[in-house]
C-alpha cells in the first residue's frame, strides 16, 4: 500500500481513480478511541462512547465536503434516496436502510462495516451514485440489485456501470454453514470455487463474499468491477472485524459525485 505520511487518517481507495467520483474506506487508524475501539471508530451503535465517535466523525469531516448521509443499517434491502430531505429529518434518527443513492454533487453517501462489504456503484459519466452495505444476508436478498434499480429510476439515461467492493472479510476467514451456502445456490452453480469445504472443520465452508458480490454485479450488467482485496478479519492492525473480535468499532466507506478528479494520494491497494 502507498501511504501519505502527511495525513493522520489513512484510507483505502480504488486502485484506479474514478472520473467524477470520490470514494474511500477508512481504517481503524487515525482517531481518538481506546481499546477495543482504538482508534477511529465511526459507528455510534458499536458500544463505544458517543462523544468519542462524534470526535472521530469530526476528524472525518476534514476529508469530505459535507455531513454524510448516515444510515441505520439492518442487513436488509431497503435503499433510500439521499436527495429526499424527508429521509433524513434528524441526524439522531437516520433511516433504517442498507443503501442510498444520489444524483447531487457533493452529497456524501456513507456505509459502516466491520467484515460486511461496502459496494460503491456509479455510471461512467458520474451522473448517479449508490453505496450499499452488503453482508451475506443483504447480498443474498438483493441489496445490490435494489440499489442499481433505484439508480436507474433516478437517472434513466445512465449507462456504463462500474463498482468498487471495499474491504471485507476474506474467503480464507469467512467460515459458514450449509444454510449460507444454500442462499447462494444459483451463484455457486456457476462458480463453485466461491464456496469450498473448510479443510479444518467438518460441515463448514469458506465463502468468498467479495467474489459473490462481483458475480452478482456482473449478472446485473456492471461491466467494470474492482475489488479491494483487503481482508478485515486477518488484518487486526488496520481493520475492525466483528467476527474476529465481537466488541469492536466500524469503518466507513464514503462516496460522492464531484466535478474534481479523484486523487489516490493517501492509501491505495490491498493487504500488504
Fold and architecture overview:
The chain has 272 residues and is an alpha+beta fold. The protein has one domain (12-170, 225-259): CNF1/YfiH-like putative cysteine hydrolases. Helices cover 21% and strands 22% of the residues. It contains seven helices and 15 strands. It has a six-stranded mixed beta sheet with strand order 4-5-8-7-9-13. Strands 2-3-14-6 form a four-stranded antiparallel beta sheet, with no helix packed on it.
Q: Strand arrangement, largest sheet?
A: 4-5-8-7-9-13
CATH class: Alpha Beta
The secondary-structure class comes to alpha+beta
Q: Evaluate the radius of gyration.
A: 17 Å
**Shape summary:** globular
String of helices and strands: EEEHEEEEEHHEEHHEEHEHEE
Assign a percent range to the helix content.
10-25%
Tell me the CATH topology. CNF1/YfiH-like putative cysteine hydrolases
Please tell me the overall pLDDT. Answer: 92
Runs in which pLDDT lies below 50 for 5 or more consecutive residues are 1-6, 264-272
DSSP summary: helix tally: 7
Question: What is the assigned CATH homologous superfamily?
Answer: CNF1/YfiH-like putative cysteine hydrolases
Instruction: Note the beta-strand portion.
Output: 15-25%
Number of strands: 15
For the termini, the CA-CA separation is: 6 Å
Query: In the CATH hierarchy, what is the architecture at level 2?
Result: 4-Layer Sandwich
Q: Major β-sheet, in short?
A: 6 strands, mixed
How many domains comprise the coordinates?
A: 1
Amino acid at each position: 500500500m502507498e501511504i501519505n505520511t502527511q495525513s493522520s487518517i489513512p484510507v483505502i481507495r480504488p486502485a484506479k481513480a474514478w472520473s467524477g467520483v470520490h470514494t474511500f474506506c477508512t481504517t481503524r487508524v487515525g482517531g481518538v478511541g481506546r481499546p477495543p475501539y482504538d482508534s477511529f471508530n465511526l459507528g455510534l451503535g458499536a458500544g463505544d462512547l458517543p462523544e468519542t465517535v462524534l470526535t472521530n466523525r469530526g476528524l472525518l469531516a476534514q476529508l469530505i465536503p459535507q455531513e454524510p448521509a448516515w444510515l441505520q443499517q439492518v442487513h436488509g434491502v431497503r435503499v433510500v434516496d439521499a436527495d429526499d430531505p424527508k429521509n433524513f429529518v434528524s441526524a439522531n434518527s437516520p433511516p433504517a436502510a442498507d443503501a442510498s443513492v444520489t444524483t447531487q454533487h457533493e452529497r456524501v453517501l456513507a456505509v459502516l462495516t466491520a467484515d460486511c462489504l461496502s459496494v460503491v456503484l456509479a455510471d461512467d459519466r458520474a451522473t448517479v451514485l449508490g453505496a450499499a452495505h452488503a453482508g451475506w444476508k443483504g447480498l443474498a436478498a438483493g441489496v445490490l440489485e435494489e440499489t442499481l434499480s433505484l439508480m436507474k429510476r433516478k437517472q434513466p439515461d445512465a449507462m456504463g456501470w462500474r463498482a468498487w467492493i471495499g474491504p471485507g472479510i476474506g474467503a480464507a476467514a469467512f467460515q459458514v454453514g450449509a444454510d449460507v451456502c444454500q442462499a447462494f445456490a444459483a451463484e455457486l452453480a456457476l462458480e463453485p470455487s466461491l464456496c469450498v469445504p473448510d479443510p479444518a472443520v467438518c460441515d463448514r465452508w469458506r465463502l468468498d463474499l467479495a467474489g459473490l458480490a462481483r458475480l452478482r454485479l456482473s449478472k446485473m450488467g456492471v461491466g467494470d468491477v474492482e475489488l479491494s482485496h483487503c481482508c478485515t478479519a486477518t488484518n487486526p492492525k488496520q481493520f475492525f472485524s466483528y467476527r474476529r473480535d465481537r466488541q469492536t468499532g466500524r469503518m466507513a466507506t464514503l462516496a460522492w459525485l464531484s466535478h474534481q478528479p479523484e486523487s489516490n494520494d493517501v492509501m491505495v491497494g490491498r493487504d500488504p
